[in-house]
């Protein structure tokens, strides 16, 4: 018998200040954005001005609800100029393609890396 994956965002330890590092697990809903990610992003922007964002969508990630996809777009667009760096780590093709498609519209460096390059993403997001 397998244990079901806990859904939601895990805030990764070892990052503080202007760096937010999260891992998406299971089925992400609008509630996950509204109760966890959006308040965290807004609090860090209020405290630090610009933030660095490491977003991991690894093997435990399953899907987004339509509401979560909308909240993701709304969060990104409403804080477009508030990111200093963005790293997205995933092996999911449609997410990688989508990030690469929209990266030129984001006024911050964006890197999209495969899951096996997670240590590179962590180093880059934290580098001075």
Automatic annotation (TrEMBL):
InterPro entries: SpoIIAA-like, SpoIIAA-like_sf, STAS_dom_sf. Transmembrane segments: none annotated. Coiled coil: none annotated. Pfam families: SpoIIAA-like. It comes from the Bacteria. This is SpoIIAA-like protein.
């Amino acid at each position: 018998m397998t244990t079901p994956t806990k859904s939601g965002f895990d805030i990764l330890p070892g990052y503080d200040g202007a760096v937010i590092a999260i891992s998406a697990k299971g089925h992400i809903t609008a509630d996950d954005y509204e109760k966890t990610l959006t308040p965290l992003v807004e609090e860090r922007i209020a405290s630090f001005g610009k933030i660095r964002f490491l977003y991991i969508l690894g093997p435990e990630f399953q899907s987004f609800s339509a509401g979560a996809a909308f909240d993701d777009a709304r969060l990104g667009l409403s804080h477009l100029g508030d990111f200093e760096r963005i790293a997205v780590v995933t092996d999911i093709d449609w997410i990688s393609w989508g990030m690469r498609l929209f990266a030129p519209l984001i006024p911050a460096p964006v890197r999209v890396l495969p899951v096996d390059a997670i240590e590179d993403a962590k180093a880059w997001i934290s580098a001075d």
